[in-house]
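## retry 2 of 3
previous attempt timed out at serialization; input unchanged, resubmitting
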Amino acid sequence: MQSKFAIPIVVLSVLGAIAFAAQWTIERQRVYSLTIATGNADGEYYAFATALSSVVAAHEPKIQIRVLETDGSLQNAKLLAESEADLGIIQGDTSLDPSVQAIAYLFPEICHLIAAPSANIRQFTDLRGKRVAVPPQGSGSYPIFKHFQTHYNLMDSDFRPLPMTTAESYEKLQAGEIDALFRVIALGSPSVRGLLQRTQAQLVPIDQAESMRLTLPVLEASEIPKGTYDGALPIPDEDIPAVGLRAILVTRRDLEPAIAKVITQTLFEFRNELVSQYPRAALMRLPDARENLGLSLHPGARDYYNQDEPAFLVEYAEVMGFLLSFAVLAASSLWQFRRWLDERQKNRADMYNLKVLALLEKVEQASTPEELESLRQALFEMFHKVVTDLDTDRISQASFQSFTFPWDVVLSTIRHRELLMSRAMDYKDQKPEMRR
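## retry succeeded, writing output
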């Protein structure tokens, strides 16, 4: 019977091992093809995604990322929600489907208000009566401009908003057909540099970032440093206040955690390679635990961010050591204080006992009832003091009990001495014949 079942069992075991090995080999050789939704081919999102795809492929050949040109954040969010893209780059204020999760903060994007040199625009409110190129409706930057417009109390009737693409706005500013343009773009953008150098256009300060955050928390106070777009002239000629928000790399919730972790790892551990292809990648930073990305972190990204967190005992070893040392010091101090208090109470009780013994000696030396009465009063005054000290914890209960014994002895001695003196006086007063 054993030989009858042995062969099938061996065959099944071998087949199972072969299947397991084949599955393992397939997984090892599997290539993950991902699509990242970006923006216009001449934009910052596209340039960053191209650099990321190149660096990921160099270190993880099994992950291939195809860079997809799109119209920007809103389309990227739609492609992710419809599972037509695996990754996407969005502005921090973009509304997303719950199925989309964050991987990392990327570079900051700065709100640029650029005015023609002859437009006499020095601040945002100077846009009244001007022709202003604004982002197209449906773009990620359009809601930001509308938010600024509301904040500065500008109505559409106060100026002439002209929705157009970035390339069109640059051409029309250079041709003198508009007075200003508004764009949200990465700091140091080559296209902005070229525009400013060609036209002598001016960067207009945008301040009040903190008050704008009250209604749009993703905004953050920033600045455009002196010389950002030309160090020789320089452009700008001084640091000017600005408002910015972060670009965020996002993915679908169903992306395998291991893949998301590899991409997150590439962003921060191979940053130098990213920077060599896209310099603004140097501005990436790890998310702060106190901040809110506006959406949840993908588990794979969270695994990477938490991998270096120490165990609880290690992380709080210093605090726990301090608390333990403090507890030991406090216990020692309490013990020392108790010893001091006990010693103080004992010394005070000993003082009373010595005084009682001194009274006892005086009682034995007293020769008149008046002296004994004076000693009795002193004895009761001392008893009153001892009771008061007992109530105020200046002596202990045990010390009080030890005091009452010699006190009773002295009181009994006084009474005995008084009796002897009374008998002696009675005897002295008797007639001589009665003494016989």
